[in-house]
């Protein structure tokens, strides 16, 4: 195959031939008029023929230039269409999803490999942000959130109902397999700012008394509270589903054999505008299947 001329030079000729004006061609190509002229001269030298006649009013195609222009225009149109189709396909196979940071780090990311193995062509954009702002929700395809939200433009799917247990770093047990209910008040309780009465509800649910003098440490998020538990700062309440890996690897342990406390539901919200997307359908189906299987185990 013979060596092709520079693609940049071919494009400069095609645009200049369409406009028949160097200044207009330069504006479309984001270069200077002299740059366009240089590219055209380079192409003419390489092809061994003149493509334009310069006139006082601008440019005029020669016979050979008029012969080449339609073919190049069709080629560049085909190339532009191919790139546009590729971008559209990539956008259609991408999903933007938002969820609480603790859910992302302790369940979604550890399990994400299974989804990617089944759907290697789907790109995910994972956000952990405040979705109570309607303006923020506009860019989201899916949302995982704790508690129900009757938001226009989204349809809800129940994923699971959270069950909370007491966890701590295994070192705090000092060799014991579990704490007794009476032991709880001897430890600092790690609280979550958005759930200030959670430990009191747990005490009423389990019948384990918590004295008013029990020490507490409050964190902004549950993720931070669980990190505090891992560091041995005290006892934390954690959702059974989000600490599976921590329990398996011994980073945390269930501190006492009390009945799990029902905390509330987690929902998957899917944007009506994107509910028909194959990528969104695939992610939604995978999430619902994962939690359905977990409930049956």
UniProtKB/TrEMBL annotation:
SUPFAM superfamilies: Periplasmic binding protein-like II (SSF53850), Winged helix' DNA-binding domain (SSF46785). Residues 5-62 form the HTH lysR-type domain. GO terms for biological process: DNA-templated transcription. Pfam families: HTH_1 (PF00126), LysR_substrate (PF03466). Keywords: DNA-binding, Transcription, Transcription regulation. InterPro entries: LysR-type_TF_proteobact-type, LysR_HTH_N, LysR_subst-bd, WH-like_DNA-bd_sf, WH_DNA-bd_sf. CDD domains: PBP2_GcdR_TrpI_HvrB_AmpR_like (cd08432). It comes from the Bacteria. Belongs to the LysR transcriptional regulatory family. PANTHER family: HTH-TYPE TRANSCRIPTIONAL REGULATOR, HTH-TYPE TRANSCRIPTIONAL REGULATOR TRPI. This is LysR family transcriptional regulator.
């Amino acid at each position: 195959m013979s060596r092709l001329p520079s693609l940049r030079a071919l494009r400069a000729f095609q645009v200049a031939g369409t406009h028949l004006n160097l200044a207009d061609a330069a504006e479309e190509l984001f270069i200077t008029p002299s740059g366009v002229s240089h590219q055209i001269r380079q192409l003419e030298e390489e092809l061994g023929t003149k493509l334009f006649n310069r006139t006082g009013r601008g440019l005029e195609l020669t016979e050979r230039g008029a012969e080449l222009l339609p073919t190049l225009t069709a080629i560049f149109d085909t190339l532009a269409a191919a790139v546009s189709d590729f971008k559209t396909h990539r956008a259609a196979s991408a999903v933007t999803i938002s969820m609480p940071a603790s859910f992302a780090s302790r369940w979604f990311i550890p399990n994400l490999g299974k989804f990617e193995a089944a759907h290697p062509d789907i790109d995910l954009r994972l956000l952990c942000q405040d979705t109570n702002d309607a303006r923020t929700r506009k860019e989201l395809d899916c949302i995982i959130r704790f508690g129900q939200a009757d938001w226009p433009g989204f349809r809800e799917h129940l994923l699971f109902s959270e069950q909370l247990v007491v966890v701590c770093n295994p070192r705090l047990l000092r060799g014991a397999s579990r704490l007794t209910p009476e032991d709880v008040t001897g430890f600092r309780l790690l609280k979550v700012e958005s759930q200030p009465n959670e430990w009191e509800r747990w005490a009423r649910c389990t019948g384990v008394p918590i004295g008013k003098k029990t020490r507490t440490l409050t964190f902004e998020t549950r993720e931070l509270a669980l990190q505090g538990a891992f560091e041995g700062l005290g006892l934390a309440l954690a959702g059974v589903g989000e600490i599976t890996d921590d329990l398996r690897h011994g980073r945390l342990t269930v501190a006492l054999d009390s009945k799990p406390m029902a905390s509330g539901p987690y929902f998957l919200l899917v944007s009506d505008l994107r509910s028909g997307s194959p990528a969104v359908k695939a992610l939604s189906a995978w999430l619902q299947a994962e939690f359905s299987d977990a409930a049956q185990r």
